[in-house]
Amino acid sequence: MINHYKLFISVGEASGDILAANLMRDLKKIPNYKFKFYGIAGERMISEGGIKSLFPSKELAIMGYLEIIPKIFKILFRLFQTILYIKKLMPDLIITVDSPGFNFLLVKLVKKFLNLDIAIIHYVAPTVWAYKPERAQKCAELFNHMLVIFPFEKKYFDKVGLKCSYVGNPTIESGSDYGQINKDDIRKEYGLIGKKIITIIPGSRKNELKYHLPVLREYMDELCKKYKNIFFILPTLGHLEKQIKRYLKHDNLIICKDDRDKNNLINISDLILCKSGTSVLESITKKVPIIVFYKMNRFTAYIIKKKLKISYVAICNIVMNKSIIPELLQDNFNVRNLLLESEKFINNKEKVTQQLKDIELFLTKFDSSKIERQKASEVILSYLEGALASIKENKALLSKYSVKEEMYIHR
Predict the structure, then answer these.
(1) Residue from 307, 304, 131, 275 nearest 206 by CA
(2) 201 and 279 in contact (C-beta within 8 Å)?
(3) Which one has a higher pLDDT value, 369 or 2?
(4) What is the DSSP string of 160-200?
(5) How confident is the model over 174-188, as pLDDT tens digits?
(6) What radius of gyration, in Å, describes the C-alpha atoms of the chain?
(7) Pairing relation of β-strands 196-201 and 230-235?
(8) Phi then psi for 383, rounded to 5 degrees?
(9) DSSP letter, residue 36
(10) pLDDT digits (tens, 9 = 90+) for 329-351
(11) What would the mean pLDDT of 64-73 be, rounded to a whole number?
(12) How many CB atoms lie within 10 A of CB 353?
């Protein structure tokens, strides 16, 4: 017997799109179950599950306080559009992935306006360990289950009575084999033999590019003056390519959108400059030295700094509680500092060796043999099976009641 289910999934960021697509792939592999996917989807989800997105998920890729003001009415419209869609769809399960700004408000409104007996699961915990630890309690009021990607996060939700599962970190796990590739062959394939290669990951939000690209352009210009054999790699998403090309017109630059090109070219890099965020985690699996940067408007930066409970922003530094990866944030993200930190890695092999050694130690903390974990797809299935058992039980009770009622009527 085949069990059919409708799942509503909401993502807002490129990283959430990857996680949701991987989850969809795992669910489709389960025998005797058929899943139909609906919701707010990114490109990978659309490709993986044939899902038709309610609207482009990139509309939700907004970070900051001032940045959201011009888009507030559109976001409110999208919220109520989504609520009406869920009401009409009546899914068997709601899964929200990351993007707490939109997804938490969505779930709050669903609970307030829709009388649905549907479990709601959130994938990727808000950073309660970095700021606003009270959000763990708010999560307990909104969700039936939390899926976390860092082992140390689980305790925060266990404490407030929210069911929580560590489901592994797909970014680290998928990147674990990259170090085994033949880098000489890849350099030859792309015509990069003898080049000093620097990968720059400027961000996947338009506002991030607005703040990052002017500084990066000047940095690239200065570095080209000092090193004649320098070459730059810039991985990005298709819809951001035009904005990037308006700033960066360098001949020694490859802007890559294809996943194979991204993986190959990042892996042969001598240095990665990466904006703070999920992409840092992916970058450190490449076993390439890395520098982290980030800049946003001053008001948002001030508010976030006030709320922060930690000394670092890069996850590797946070977990290891020391500065393994240089962090150039706000005013410190400038051409002078970028050049200074870059040349430490370009000209100092000991510096490279030490950072990679520390990163390797950080990665051992995700060793699946040492940590209790579940598969995200198994958690999802357990809720669906629980709902199915409840329906069957209710039908059985209703049937039993109907028989008794009929006997009473004919007595």
Answers:
(1) 275
(2) yes
(3) 2
(4) TT--EEE---HHHHHHTTGGGS-HHHHHHHTT-TT-EEEEE
(5) 655 544 568 889 999
(6) 24
(7) parallel
(8) -70, -40
(9) E
(10) 999 999 999 999 999 999 899 99
(11) 74
(12) 11
